[in-house]
């Protein structure tokens, strides 16, 4: 059983997230946490670009060691403090300097917080295929929809919006413990 905590948060670094999860009783290592920032860092390393980081200061530790002095890419996270004239002007300058996709005959890489790229990148470091993975979430649009688009099974905590996506989640549970029980009792043998 591969255990990963995958989250679409862009507000805090993995170290802080690990601390919160440990306080909640999770027995997990930092390398078993995958965030939107992890996906962005991995793609940045693959493409070897320097980014302009418009992320919360609590997220910056996840970008330690990455040069940002000559950015040619923009990372936009949940950081309202960066959405002011000077920073937005810098962001748009970078976008214009890089040129439009058409002019450059290239395609931008967009990592949506719960899009296909995010989920595939989360699985890349494991030996787990999408159809063998389970995504547990509380938001049908931002969690289950993207996971199901890549072939993962989506299990949703009942929030009242479970009927808003098509296809519907694989399963809707009343609580996190009910989900864990379902996975351990019914799904593990299906995936073997």
Automatic annotation (TrEMBL):
SUPFAM superfamilies per the UniProt record, alphabetical: HAD-like (SSF56784)
Pfam families: Hydrolase_like
Coiled-coil ranges per UniProt: none
Any one Gene Ontology cellular component term annotated for this protein: cytoplasm
Alphabetized InterPro entries for the sequence: HAD-like_sf, HAD_sf
Gene3D superfamilies named among the record's database cross-references: HAD superfamily/HAD-like
Entry GO MF terms: phosphatase activity
Classification via PANTHER family: 4-NITROPHENYLPHOSPHATASE-RELATED (PTHR19288), HALOACID DEHALOGENASE-LIKE HYDROLASE DOMAIN-CONTAINING PROTEIN 2 (PTHR19288:SF46)
Protein known as: HDHD2 protein
């Amino acid at each position: 059983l591969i255990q990963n905590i995958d989250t679409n948060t862009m507000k805090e670094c993995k170290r802080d997230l690990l601390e919160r999860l440990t306080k909640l009783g999770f027995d997990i290592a930092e390398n078993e946490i995958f965030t939107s920032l992890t996906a962005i860092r991995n793609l940045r390393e693959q493409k070897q670009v320097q980014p302009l980081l418009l992320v919360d200061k609590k997220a910056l530790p996840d970008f330690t060691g990455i040069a940002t002095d000559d950015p040619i890419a923009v990372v936009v996270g949940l950081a309202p403090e960066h959405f002011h004239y000077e920073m937005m002007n810098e962001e748009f300058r970078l976008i214009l300097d890089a040129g439009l996709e058409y002019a450059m005959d290239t395609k931008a890489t967009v990592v949506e917080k719960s899009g296909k790229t995010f989920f595939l990148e989360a699985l890349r470091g494991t030996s787990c295929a999408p159809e063998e993975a389970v995504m547990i979430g509380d938001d049908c649009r931002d969690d289950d929809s993207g996971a199901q688009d890549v072939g993962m099974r989506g299990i949703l905590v009942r929030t009242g919006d479970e009927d808003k996506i098509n296809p519907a989640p694989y399963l809707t549970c009343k609580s996190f413990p009910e989900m864990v029980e379902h996975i351990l009792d019914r799904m593990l043998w299906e995936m073997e």
